[in-house]
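check these tokens.
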Amino acid sequence: MIPESHPLRQLFLELIGRHYAEELGLRNPEIVNYVAQLLAEFCEVEQLFKIRDAAARPLTDVGEMLIESDPIYGPAPSFDRERQVRKHIGDYTLFFAGMFPESINHLRLRRNRVESLVDWMKAGKESYYIVSKFEHFEYTKVAPLFASLSRNFEECVYGLNQVKNDLQAMQHPIVQRNSQILM
């Protein structure tokens, strides 16, 4: 995990906070912190693919994740497992739709996948909504955050797309040359 004091995490906090506040009017520090932590967490590929099926195979298909999350008709052994997988679906779809939207269709076209039938935005928004309904016991304090993430899912995706554009611009030779001149 990347510690809170790490410069990369601070960069994510700054960029997300600015774009969410200035362009979206979304001034919720809990959402900003959560999304910044999500970006930092997903810097480690293992975190991106941490949901596994019964055979310990990492699930990369949102459709398969949805099946995995079902405690009634699917393989989820408990409602806690449903919450864990649904939270990951929300995180996964937010991350990919915001940071790598072009990869979503690329993945779908590569081979037959269950997610070919899944609307990623709807799956992410719905998953955060379901997580927000776990509002008792140890989940009481975080349930409102997930309700906010569900309500503002599209805006969060758009803001992350703007963050992606900033990160790409920082890598552009003109920006790098200007930084060298200024330093």
